[in-house]
Amino acid sequence: MNEEPASILLVEDNPQDAEIMLHVLRENGFGNDVEVVRDGVAAIDFARNHPAPRLMLLDLKMPKVDGIEVLGALKADERTRSVPIVVLTSSSQESDVREAYRSGANGYVVKPVDIDAFGKIVGAIGAYWLDVNRVPRQ
Amino acid sequence: MRRIRVNRPDSRHLALIVDAAPIAIIVADADGMLRIVNEQAQKLFGYERDELLGQPVEMLLPSRFRKGHPGLRSAYVEAASSRPMGAGRELFGLRKDGVEFPIEIGLNPFPTPDGLLVLAAVIDISERKQVEEHLRLIIDAAPNAKVLVDTGGRITLVNAEAERLFGYTRDELLDQPVDALLPERFRRGHAGMRASYLDAPSTRAMGAGRDLYGLRKDGGEVPIEIGLGPIDTPKGQFVLASIIDITERKHAEGLRLASAGVLAHNAELEALNNELESFSYSVSHDLRAPVRAINGFARMLQKRHAGGLDAEGKRLLDVVQNESTRMGVLIDDILELSRLGRQEIRITRLDMSALVREVVREHSARAEPSNAVFELEALPPASGDLVQFQRVWDNLVSNALKYSRNSRPPTIRIWGELDGENVVYHVADNGVGFDMKYANKLFGVFSRLHASEEFAGTGVGLAIVYRVIMRHRGRIWADAAVDRGATFSFSLPSVSTHE
Prior knowledge:
The complex is a heterodimer of chains A (138) and B (499).
Chain A: E1 8-11, H1 15-27, E2 34-37, H2 40-49, E3 55-58, H3 67-76, E4 85-89, H4 94-102, E5 107-110, H5 115-132
Parallel strand pairs in A: 1-2, 1-3, 3-4, 4-5
Helix pairs in contact in A: 1-5, 2-3
Chain B: H1 11-20, E1 24-29, E2 34-37, H2 39-45, H3 49-52, H4 63-66, H5 69-78, E3 83-84, E4 91-94, E5 100-112, E6 115-124, H6 126-141, E7 145-150, E8 155-158, H7 160-166, H8 170-173, H9 184-199, E9 204-205, E10 212-215, E11 221-233, E12 236-245, H10 247-260, H11 263-304, H12 311-342, E13 347-350, H13 352-366, E14 373-376, E15 382-385, H14 386-404, E16 411-419, E17 422-429, H15 461-471, E18 475-480, E19 486-493, H16 495-498
Parallel strand pairs in B: 14-16
Antiparallel strand pairs in B: 1-2, 1-6, 3-5, 4-5, 5-6, 7-8, 7-12, 9-11, 10-11, 11-12, 13-15, 16-17, 17-19, 18-19
Helix pairs in contact in B: 11-12, 12-15, 13-14, 14-15
């Protein structure tokens, strides 16, 4: 496989949320090579079978394989371990935050309801992981 | 000389009627001279009939009342009507042997051709007074709060402990509906419960199995236990409520449960906690997502299709966006409140002065409003959960700033003191204040005393403060007047009694 890696892999089961995220990513200049998958199985599958994305934005609550399991699988795998994974979720439960970090998340952000606030956060995450803190390619 | 006797009341006839009455009756003329007295009256006052007839009625009064009485009498004669005498005053009669006794008097005017006669029914209330006096003594001497309530639900007697517990003076309580001492949420069902108690009155605990709370004048709530007992007096039936403040016990129970390690109980608690977790999870996740979609899609419509919308269309879209943003804030606040309720409290020693300085510094940095003046005094330390008290101070300071932002300049004063076993803290502002009439609504979730157009907010901030203080065994109250600023105060058990 010789394709260019996607900058961002967005794992989001809720189509409305996915659309909003794409909108704010685009507004922040990160919209050009975003790959969207709809569940945990597809996320693991994509990460393993394509060049590793430079950043993964991961929803937690998803059917079948949830975000925590995705984290576990990718952080345990030599090939995908260094992909920065930022959890973007609606849940502000402490147990979720703790579990996500224990499973290797690089960040945990509660999705704001207000789209302007959402845009700012996504802009900051993108700027940090894609421009400031560059992760070595595999 | 012809005497015309037409229409003249037959005084013998009247005397017969009066004599047949089961209570003491005296009849005096407009000049206050006794014209008729019945057997009962003779017995009551200890005189023979001959000793009374033709004498001024004042002879039946203790000397201290005699001087004013003719004046009162003529005023009555001028505006004669049937009414109880001496409304609001205690009346006394004087027996021949010089003994005074409490009486009640009903007056009836009785016009006759040669002037007005006044018929007075006199009731000896010594026995009734004795019972009342007895009851008052017992109630006053009781070591815990007692409230005597009549069958109409009005407060008839209270003792000093009740004044202390509820923060009202005796005068403020007497004759008030007892419901005023209940948090609003309990009031609706209370009349029905009182009625069913009166149907089958017995000495028993109130609200078996339920947590009861009393409402203080300052709006704070106190966990209480209530015992009820029926009391029969010559004045009718009353219910005596004995009230015990169980704030301390509640806390002790909490400690016992936490430390006993009773497995069954822990399992139960865990199940309950899990239930709460899943509830607040569904609030956070399942409610947030659709609200976020409304907000986000409204914005996308605005950005991408602004051309297709006229000014009104854009305005409507703005409303959709703003309201969904507000709902997001509400959801976050509810979540925080529910989290506070079950979060474990980590007790540490709190340097309240430092905490307040930090909160004030943050607010000043945000410059909202920029001209606010803070007057901070050194605060006594306390013990409690650091994070939760950061929230308490943050909410109290934001609140003070919010409601004083139109004052010139907004001035917030924060001070504290030791008060016996407690430490007390105060946050006072010079803002719009509020009517104390609504003080009981201050700490409820979503209850607001000002329109949200005037002062933004979700109405959860003070509910959060209240919950934290309650979980720390403290009390919180407020004092305010419209346009005269507000002072919020809370007390906590002082450090020395805590560990």
